[in-house]
Amino acid sequence: MKSLIPSLLILLILVFALFKTGGQHIRKKQKTVNSTYLEHVRKHKTPHIREELRKLHTVAYAKNYIVNVIKYGSHQFDFKGGEMEGGFASPNDAPKIACYVLSLSGKQCKTPYSKDAAMFYTSICGGCHGNDGKGLGGAYPNLTRDPLLGIERREEFLKNLLHKGVH
Ligand code: HEC
């Protein structure tokens, strides 16, 4: 029995040490979240909603939206719909396809798309949205619409929030 006491003592110390470091770990984590959040609030004095509304009709915003639809599906911004699944094209090809889509309504991305973008669009997307992007007989959304439907809905949603005094 006597020989057991030292090993029990060591075990006790080990459990205590483990408990202590575990606790510190959690406290550290909370501290990082808080300071990042505070920094974020300090940096963004302009309310996010107004900032997003200002960018809403830029080519960059539309490009980002199309890239997200290609990657994750048409169920963006939590709107109803979502009938187009994500993943028709690889995430790597998404930006150039998005720029090609924008070019169909005369818009231009900052970085020009590579020549194969047209081929990707026609073979992957053209079957539903038409090679000219105008949708096939109205059954699929017109990708040359300005603004795109999702962006129009986003604008309504954000303006509605401002109207309700959320900012
Ligand atoms: C199988 C048919 C199909 C294919 C293939 C397809 N889409 Fe779609 N797409 C749809 C449908 C249907 C919707 C509308 C979904 C909804 O209302 O939620 C849509 C919606 C979209 C939207 C949103 C339009 C808007 O006005 O907001 C974009 C952008 C889009 N597609 C781009 C693409 C691109 C780029 C490709 C090729 C990588 C592609 N789609 C391939 C059927 C398709």
Report on this model:
With 167 residues, this protein is mainly alpha-helical. It has two domains: 4-45; 51-163, no CATH class. The chain contains six helices and no strands. It has helices at 4-43, 48-55, 59-72, 94-103, 116-129, 149-163. α4 (94-103) crosses α5. Bound molecules: heme C. Residues 66, 69-70, 74, 81-84, 88-89, 97, 101, 124-125, 127-129, 140-141, 143, 145, 148-150 line the site of heme C.
Give the SSE layout:
Elements: H1 4-43, H2 48-55, H3 59-72, H4 94-103, H5 116-129, H6 149-163
The protein binds heme C.
Heme C (HEC) is lined by residues 66, 69-70, 74, 81-84, 88-89, 97, 101, 124-125, 127-129, 140-141, 143, 145, 148-150.
How much of the sequence lies in strands comes to under 5%
Structural class: mainly alpha
Task: Write down the oligomeric state.
Answer: single chain
The percentage helix is 55-70%
- Work out the count of structural domains: 2
- Principal-axis shape: elongated
Hetero groups: heme C
The whole-number mean of residue pLDDT values reads 84
- Number of helices, where a helix is a run of at least 4 consecutive DSSP H or I residues: 6
Rg from alpha-carbon coordinates:
26 Å
